[in-house]
Structures are given as C-alpha cells and as structure tokens.
Amino acid sequence: MDSAEFHAAVYYVVRQIPPRKVTSYGHIAKLIGMPRHSRHVGQALKFLSPTVQPPVPWYRVVSSAGTISSRGPGTNGAELQRQELEAEGVEVAQTRGGELKVDFGRWGWFPAPGTVDTGVEVTGDGPDGDAQDAEEEEDDNNQQQGGWPSSFQVVA
C-alpha cells in the first residue's frame, strides 16, 4: 500500500465514525490493519483537503488519551476541532493543564478490528518473527522522526 492508498483507507474509515462519537488515531490505524502507524493517521488527516468529497469528519479523531492534539503555537486547529465536536453535541472539557479532552467512556467509538469496512483488505504489521520485523522496526524509527514507512502490505 503506498501513501495515497493509506490515506484513502484512513479517510474511508474516518467517514464511518458516527456523529457524536470520537476515536483515536491509533484505533484508526488498527482498523486499517496498520496498528503501528497512528502518527501516519494524524499526518493523513493533517494533509486532508477541505474540499474532499465526500467530506471526512477529521475532528472526530483525537489522541489515545482523548485529548485534542495541539497544532502548534499560533494555530487555531484545536479550537476549530473543539467547535466542530461541540456542534455535534460532544462535550469537550478543559483540563487543569489547559488541554481539551473528550470522555471516551461516553463518546468513544472503538469497534473491533475486522468489523469495519476499510475499503481495502490489509494485513497487520505486528511483530511475528519474520524478516520483515526489522524493516518494520526501522519504519517505526522513521515514523518517530517524521519519516514515511518504506512499505505497507496489501492483500487482494
């Protein structure tokens, strides 16, 4: 799976998150069979065109802690995400530390992998003792440094 196919799978699954529900970047990665690529899910949503059709409700995806990720100093992306969620009726709380957080117990959407149509059939990338594990470890290191994995596996 190349990066365009990965992005398409992410968008396909994110479109299935019901209104008034949220999930995590990591859970989207698990649903598309790429559990070690949550940061790439975030990157796919970061580069989402606002004119893409049908629309992708990017604002329904938050961190694994339920927090809305900061977009960096001087940006309003986190506040925009808060507004979009609240417009749907999702409660967003501000923590003592100033983080914006959603209660997964109330608003979470976490279907089991294999129960959601991903638009593509993918194989997982977990460690299984094969030669590809070393390449996957390198991909994880690249991911932590902002790089793109060398490959994704797709089965037809």
From TrEMBL:
<dbReference type="Pfam" id="PF01035">
    <property type="entry name" value="DNA_binding_1"/>
</dbReference>
<dbReference type="GO" id="GO:0008168">
    <property type="term" value="F:methyltransferase activity"/>
</dbReference>
<dbReference type="InterPro" id="IPR014048">
    <property type="entry name" value="MethylDNA_cys_MeTrfase_DNA-bd"/>
</dbReference>
<dbReference type="InterPro" id="IPR036388">
    <property type="entry name" value="WH-like_DNA-bd_sf"/>
</dbReference>
<dbReference type="InterPro" id="IPR036217">
    <property type="entry name" value="MethylDNA_cys_MeTrfase_DNAb"/>
</dbReference>
<keyword id="KW-0489">Methyltransferase</keyword>
<dbReference type="GO" id="GO:0006281">
    <property type="term" value="P:DNA repair"/>
</dbReference>
<keyword id="KW-0227">DNA damage</keyword>
<dbReference type="InterPro" id="IPR052520">
    <property type="entry name" value="ATL_DNA_repair"/>
</dbReference>
<feature type="compositionally biased region" description="Acidic residues">
    <location>
        <begin position="127"/>
        <end position="141"/>
    </location>
</feature>
<feature type="domain" description="Methylated-DNA-[protein]-cysteine S-methyltransferase DNA binding">
    <location>
        <begin position="5"/>
        <end position="90"/>
    </location>
</feature>
<keyword id="KW-0808">Transferase</keyword>
<protein>
    <submittedName>
        <fullName>DNA binding methylated-DNA--cysteine S-methyltransferase</fullName>
    </submittedName>
</protein>
<dbReference type="GO" id="GO:0032259">
    <property type="term" value="P:methylation"/>
</dbReference>
<feature type="region of interest" description="Disordered">
    <location>
        <begin position="112"/>
        <end position="156"/>
    </location>
</feature>
